Fold these 2 entries.
Entry 1:
Amino acid sequence: MRATAESIGPPAPPRPVEWVRKNLFNDWFNALLTIVSLGFLYFALVAIVRWALVTADWRPVTVSPLLFLVGQYPRDQLWRPGFSLLLSTFLIGMSWGVWERYVKAFAIFLGILLGVLALIPLETPTITFAVRAVFLVNPLLIYLGYRIGRLGAVKGRHVAMFWLIASVLMVLVLLPGYKNIPALTEVPTSAWGGLMVTLLLAVGGIVLSFPIGVLLALGRRSSLPVVKISSILFIEVVRGVPLVTILFMFSVILALFMPAESRIDRLIRALMAMVFFSAAYTAENVRGGLQAIPLGQVDAAKAVGLTNFHVTTLIVLPQALRMVIPAIVGQFISLFKDTTLVVIVGINDLLGIGGAVLNLSPEFVRLNMEVYLFIAVIFWIFSYFMSYASLQLEKALGVGER
Amino acid sequence: MNKITKNNDGKKREAIIVCRDVHKWYGHFQALKGINMEVGKGEVIVIFGPSGSGKSTFIRTLNRLEEHQKGQIIVDGIELTHDVRNVERVRMEIGMVFQQFNLFPHLTVMQNISLAPIWARKWPKDKAEKAAMELLERVGIPEQAQKYPAHLSGGQQQRVAIARALAMQPKIMLFDEPTSALDPEMIKEVLDVMIKLARSGMTMLVVTHEMGFAKAVADRMYFFDNGLIVESGTPDDIFKRPKEDRTKLFLSQILTH
């Protein structure tokens, strides 16, 4: 039989043993390098594991996990953040069911993490049975949400609407409460803290700054001089100033100019600063994408009779935004990490709580290594999943580009 | 606006495009120096000339992808001015096919074609898709409906672009060098579609150097040079009895290479 072009496949990849011999031990120098590196890795790993399991004193982290989660939120009102968490995980599950792979890994990981957290045998009085129960229910809710999302009756726009309603409900009603309703007593934002505040700032900052940034980017290219100049002014001023400065401006200067009774809440002011800052950077990233769209696309869209609004929303923006996903996600990750700067204006986010915990007891003062490592791991988990989701999104949206 | 133009075949046709003394500048460079043209319903016009002669600029002024700064352009009774609504109305009546296809890469072939009817004509989705499918059959590639443009050959992409333009049921079709970016073996499949379209009675303005196409279906030909119409006439006039030296020289260059 004659071999055709199709029957000859690519050469088989080398077996692992061959690969090691060819790449790591092909001459005496590489062999030496391999052995030295392996030795170094071994000792480093052993040292790290020994430190984490034996030397390290994790009491600052374990003594009050609730502090890291919700800060000083009144303990008798914990059902409110608890319910918010449950609502969120249910919606995460539903998002997984509807949008599949962008959310899948995050949803599964979150479910497992919360489930495991619920079962950690900690002898802490604050971790009551009820708290454990709330955590344990999360994986079930994620799964329930997933099944409901899979049914097909729920569409993407429904899920987006649910998220909108749920976040408004959580942030404006459930968490702050009201003076006049005893069941929902007022909890001032000064009592909010920990991961809850970090996530609120990050998610709020991302969700609000994105549309503003897109509008600014379009404004910067507008043919209307007023729109164009004000967009450029906003973008260039905000980008030319450090985030810390903007945070101070919003928390101190804004407060000075407003009468005490109509003052905007401290947390909201910090959020506004984050949104402004992030919007300016989003605008520049999006502008990069807009500039990369060939003029022929606009010509063709106009030529078939689309209005300028439709040319932008149906043809230009979808292509431009897809192009800048990596840049935008990178910027959102840095916004997420930048939320730690709110410590400076007196908000106890995750990092602020870390500092506070170190001062809880004289014994803890020298344990900053443990506390900050713990916080770093939490930040890493969320950041990693953001970049993972963006990769999935890019792959899924890249369909037509090959 | 019922001006009657007299054509070479002696039939009287209602003018659908009237251009009077159209001028266009890019900065200080004058691209069009006073173009006069009347096109009757159902006429097929071929425009040719050296690059930079203003022929592309001219047909782009007809649906106001380029603004003319002096003169008058009236399409289907609507004068093109700064009034955006007039421009949008005219664009809905004019289909355009580009040299570089300009298909929307993020949409499938089906979505490319049904987009404008859905959003500009407000057709329901199923009606627009049914019409799109019929157009794809007309240009000979119904099996490609669910593919993305990047997965098609150049000739197939240009046929999709023609279908996309036809989807708005235009009264006039503009072609801006539709075969110049194609490999030689794909030119024919696109020209065949255009010839079929011309014979179906569509009013067409075609910027092209495909003289075979011009001989087959053109009613009149215009030779552009340096922002002006140098010579016009039937294909017979142009090919057999060109009057201007510039025309003769250009024809000898493109016909004998």
Note: Chain B touches chain A at residues 60, 63, 65, 84, 88, 91-92, 94-96, 98, 100, 102-108, 115-116, 119-121, 148-151, 161, 164-165, 167-168 (CB under 8 Å).
Entry 2:
Amino acid sequence: MPESAEDLILRVSRRRINEDRALNHPDELIREVAMEVLKGTYSWTEAMASGVYGPAIDAMAAGDGEGDPARDVVAEAEEIHRGMVEAVVERGEAGLG
Amino acid sequence: MVGKFHVNDSGLGSLWSKTVQLSGIARGNGERVRKYAFPPLGSAGTGIYIDIMQPGLKNTWDQAERFGGGTAEVVAHLAKNIDGARKLYSSGDRRASAGFDALIDDIGTPDKTVLAGRPKPDGRSKAEDLGCTWPEDPAIHDGAPQSNPGFKFEFNVSTGDLLKPTAYVRAALAKIWGEEDPIGFFLKPFLGDWDALYKSGVEFERYAKSFGRMGRALGFLSDQVPAVWDGQASQNAREQMIDLGQKIAKAEPEFAQAGKVFKTAANDAYDAYDYFSGKIADAIDLLVPIAGEVNAGRALSKEAAAIVTTVKNVHKTLTERSAKVESAYKVLKAFPESLSMPTPKINGYSVTIGGWWKSSKQGPF
């Protein structure tokens, strides 16, 4: 069964995000976790239960205070996602840039 | 005089002891159901799904109590009267010799109701037939797991502990899903002791199986009655055994079906819970690395947008599945909730029992 555009987008996006956290996050613990998640050693969910990584992950999830908490992220995300699906349908993985 | 009247004292004794055994089995079934089949399902808290099943479980339990109790009472009464007949013969009471000729006619009279279709009493049957291997009532070895420790553990972890150290992840999930308590919203309906419900199902199946065997045993005994005991009272006893056996034969599949419903409900809960908790864990796993952006309300990268949209779609899937699960439980609850079995009662056998001693001109023969 060929991979759907949505599945391809999710797979690539997930990998890119984890790579970004593994390489660029300022917290060393988060970089460690992201690297292990990329290797498939454990998941973010499992890491959250850890006494070492849990607080670091929660701090990361708190956000940096830059932004607008009232922003409708879901509507915005859906709009962006629609464009990504169109691009992928048209050009395949290359459509993701 | 049409034939030779006979009463086989040892055969009657055997008939009596087997009937007493049956009464004991019926009582034992009742005690077991009372003890194990209506457990506190809310020991791990209560969710709406197990609440839906509760009235049906209570009804089945009540029905089993009444049916089992009534059957035990009737069979005990039957045993008592068989014993009374045996003692009367043993004592040489002169009433035992009264009206023999008339009694001999009784034995060959085809019955218009319950005796119809039964094997014609066979004079060659032996009293020893009553001493045939009596089927033991073995514990049911149900192949399915009767306990799933992972279920309660996993439930408690997922609903209670999973997100405790990560309140912000939960906040991000709540923001995307529009649920104040995003985990609890989907998982709390599964609260409850499903293992206990499953075990209740096993108990009702066991109850049905045991009573089914008892009904067949009564049929067997009824066919042996003419071999050891002639006369009106004998026919009354035989009719009663057959009638009770037929009532039990009707009840057996009903209780078995109720048991199956409870087992199915529990198994479905395990499966559905696995599905829901798995999907939620997957959604959380996707969301964790971008939860900060979501919580802060920052402009999303396209990768983050893909994750947010996927997580949102999980919510849609789970909402649809929740509705299906709830309606499935409403269908499941219908059978045990409407179960209604007639309770065997001694006075329901007024012709065979009451008339046995009071109305029969011949006495207990």
Note: Chain A touches chain B at residues 6, 9-10, 12-14, 16-18, 21, 34, 43-45, 48-49, 54-55, 57-58, 60-71, 73-74, 76-81, 83-84, 96 (CB under 8 Å).
